[in-house]
Amino acid sequence: MVGRFRAAAAALALGAAGGLAACAYNEELGRNQLLLVNDASLAQSAQQAWAQTLASNRVSQDRAGAERVRRVGSRLVEAAGLSDRPWEYVLFENPQANAFVLPGGKIGVNTGLLAIVENDDQLAAVLGHEIAHTVAQHAAERYSHAAATQLAIAGAQGALGGSNPDLGRQVASLGGVGAQLGVLMPFSRQHELEADRLGVDYMARAGYRPAEAIALWRNMAARAQAGGRPPQFLSTHPSEATRIAALEQYLASRGML
Ligand SMILES: [Zn+2]
Q: What spacing in Å lies between the alpha carbon of 148 and ligand 1's midpoint?
C-alpha cells in the first residue's frame, strides 16, 4: 500500500505543479517544454550570480576586445529577436576558453576564448550558442524539471506522514535551491545540441558564416587533444565528435555548408 500511496502523491504533486504553468510549446525548438517559471522570473537569482561573478573575477582591461564581444553579441541578439531587452557583455581576464549566459541577458566571455577564435564568425558561433540558451528558456526548463521532481518527492513524503502537503509553501521553499538549479548548473546534452542548432541559425541571419562554427569546434577539439584536457566550455558540453557530427548534418540539411 505504501507504494500506491507514494505513486498517488507523486501524481498529485506533479498535477499541481503542471497546473501552475503547464507545458508550453516553444516554436523555435519545435517541441513542448515544462515551464513552471520563465527566464524572466529567474532573472533575480541570475542577478545575484552575476554580481558574485563580477566581484570574484577580474574584468579585462582590453577595451577593444570587450567592444568586439559587444558588437558581435548585439548583431546576434538582434537576429534572434531579443534586442527588446537589456543585454550586458563582460570580457573577463581568464585564460580558460569559456563563455556563459545567465537569464536576464548577461553574457560573460573569457580572454582565453578570444585568443582561440580565428575570426568574428567563430566568436559569433560561441555567442550565438549562448544566446540560444536564452531563447530556448533552457534555464527555466531545467529549473522546472528539478522543481517538479522535488514536489513529487515532497508530496510522497507528505502522504506517508499522513498530512496534506502544502504545495504552495513547498514551491516557495524551492526558491533558494532554484537559484542554483536555474542559473548555475550545466545544461543537458539535449539543450547543448539545441543551442548549437539555433546558434548557427542566428549566425546566418546576422550575416556570419555558419560553417565557421564547425571550424571552431574542430579547433577546440584539437587543442583539447593536444592539452590532454578539454577547455571548460567543451567539458560541460556533449563530446566534440557528437556535436560536430550533429552540426554538420544540420548545416547540410539547411544548405548552410
Ligand atoms: Zn551551452
A: 23
> 138: CA distance to ligand 1 center in Å?
10
Q: How many residues does the chain have?
A: 257
The residue from 28, 67, 78, 130 that is catalytic is 130
**Could you report the per-residue pLDDT of 84-134, keeping only the tens digit for each?**
888 999 999 999 888 888 888 899 999 999 999 999 999 999 999 989 988
How remote is the CA of residue 174 from the centroid of ligand 1, in Å? 24
| 45 CA → ligand 1 middle, Å | 19
How many separate domains does the chain show? 1
Mean pLDDT of the chain: 78
Q: Check if 192 is active-site.
A: no
- Structural domain boundaries, residue 26: 1-257
Q: How far apart are alpha carbons 28 and 161 in whole angstroms?
A: 43
The DSSP secondary structure of 164-213, one letter per residue, reads: ---HHHHHHHTHHHHHHHHHTSPPPHHHHHHHHHHHHHHHHHTT--THHH
